[in-house]
Model the fold of this input.
Amino acid sequence: MKSLLKIGRTFRELRINNHISLKQASDENVSMSQLSRFERGQADLSISKFISALKNIQTEPGEFFSALNGHQKSETIEFMSKLSKLEYERDIEGFRSLYKEQKEKYSSNPSVYQYHLNMILAQSFICKCDRSIPFPKEYEREIADYLFVTDEWNIYELILIGNIYMFIDIPLLHKMGTEVLNKVIKTGANKNLATIVLLNIFETCVYRNNKDVATYYKDNIPALISDETKLYERNLYHFLLGMYIYKWEDHEKGKSIMEEAIKIYDYLGCLNLAQNYRKDMTDYI
Done:
């Protein structure tokens, strides 16, 4: 695993080589102060913020990781880049093609288990595009088996959980969630991405009417978002807290909290986010 300092330095070198200032590299997703700390190796970035920052410095993910790895091709990054593009386009046939590609690679190279995991990831996106397609139970078991024999959960492992959480039964999902929380508290690694994964788990527990497990995440997530610069995470938690309160405590108070979160997105000019959460609230209540 590359050190955070090396990742930050590589980003800075590419930004400077492209004659882009720190201000130009920042936007509504990632602030100048966050980028400055990232470049100095003092903080990491979530996947969404990192991709946004790369776009702002006119650098493709593959180009960045080629520079980071001494221009050695990274199949993982190539695969993730394809996933991101297909997700944006909601291209189910593209996901099917990607699934087939990874399946063929695994058949040819059965010692490379990541091809099989990539295949499962592609299948999860197929199921998201067409909710009538069930996510295979054996895939859920295989992901769990892989995760719980893996000592270090890095970005790839968090991406696995973050994309299949909606298909996993609550007891197993909660086991994964507590592991994510314990690991991020212990090491601090990939804290931003881990926090988003935990917020997703909190949300699905509320939707699935599991109050006990939802309460666990309601009580433990605030410690991860105490930094006032984590505006997106804090506002998302605020919205989910409103959902929790609406369902189990007080309809009017919960609705008011959800509306507050939506107004914050409106005030910040994040109109797409505001529209999406407004729709979520309408569907929810």
Observations:
- The chain has a mean pLDDT of 88.
- DSSP finds 16 helices and no strands in the chain.
